[in-house]
Amino acid sequence: xxxxxxxxxxxxxxxxxxxxxxxxxxxxxxxxxxxxxxxxxxxxxxxxxxxxxxxxxxxxxxxxxxxxxxxxxxxxxxxxxxxxxxxxxxxxxxxxxxxxxxxxxxxxxxxxxxxxxxxxxxxxxxxxx
Length: 129
Hints:
Elements: H1 2-11, E1 14-18, H2 22-34, E2 38-42, H3 45-52, E3 60-64, H4 72-81, E4 85-90, H5 95-104, E5 108-111, H6 112-128
């Protein structure tokens, strides 16, 4: 029975969330958990980079682009280059930032509203793609 439980736990993806805003960090973590993933919240780029190279990690990363404590585009560039799958979240009307995030390696850039209204469904779809 223990082997079966270990296999099930091994299949749960970890989603590392880089956000310096407590409210969005919590909302994104709740959405990841509701999508069947295990959230890991970080606030600094160095902690993000450490989280995605941890043994056994399946690097899924969500980056909040409107942070003050780090450069969201640089964070995406760094972890995408390391092989992580990355989603970003930001202001719906900041077209330049959205383009920069996509060019840096984000698979998609969602507006805050999208992840607020359907975070679990959106993240579940991404995790299973």
